[in-house]
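Customer ticket, subject: "Can you confirm the structure for diphthine methyl ester synthase?"

Message body: Hello, I'm evaluating your service for our small team and ran a test protein. I'd like someone to confirm that this is what the system normally returns, since I don't have a reference to compare against.
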Amino acid sequence: MLYIIGLGLCDEKDITMRGLEAIKSSSRVYLEAYTSILMVSKERLEAFYEKEIIVADRDMVETQADDILHGADKEDVSLLVVGDPFGATTHIDIVLRARSSNIPVRVIHNASIMNAVGACGLQLYNFGQTVSLVFFTDTWKPDSFYDRVRENAGLGLHTLVLLDIKVKEQSEENLARGRKVYEPPRYMSIPQAVSQLLEIESLRLENVLCPKTTLAIALSRVGGDADSQRIVCGTLEELGQQPPEIFGEPLHSLVIVGKRLHHLEVEYAEAYAVCKEAWRNVAKEEYGCTLD
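Agent reply: Thanks for trying us out. I re-ran your input and got the following:
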């Protein structure tokens, strides 16, 4: 049996009992370590699960999946995924590969940013399509995310923006030369994300992401303890002007607030506003919210 097990959002204790039982029964345990990261080390997981863990980087998951699947038709093998197993298409590909090899698969779910984003006070059924925002380079600035945000905005829906992480990535030079030399990990910050969003708005000029009148909510380490989880909200302009330390440690996410904004959402999120008065004024004047 191949088990694909969600680990949740924070640390080794977020595992479900069903997931822990599957790990205990497995002859090999892999940790997928590039679509997201946990807030604790591999060693802490190993100590808690009492199992050796093999880190599966992007190269292993995408090009050496057969190594992970090897023997899973005769014994239990576990692939651990931060958040929920179906939070990334990579894991669907693993399931399809297993099916084609007649390997039984069991998925064990857990919390992910896709539902934990409700911590900011916005109602989950008012969210539209989720988008990813990658690091821009001098020659590559993909803007397809903008179309999805525009579609959501047209329906008044919120947009969850997942910010890029670069873990075990090679520079273009090292990649071209075939050198297994990796760059230091990088995690996109909220100010950088806002800057990139507004850069594309300045090129598109469709008034989807207006700096002064678009409300947004920044989230950091959702699911962590009270000292590590951060929620900060305001206009895009306000968020872009805050120092990075205001938003806490990575991982970060950003929500673009849609116009189908309920007054209870406004009131709940107000506690996290950079400026409560500005938050309420924009909600009233631009979003049409009726507030006391």
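A couple of notes from the result: The first helix runs from residue 17 to 25. Residues 165 and 187 are 5 Å apart (CA to CA). Feel free to reply with more questions.
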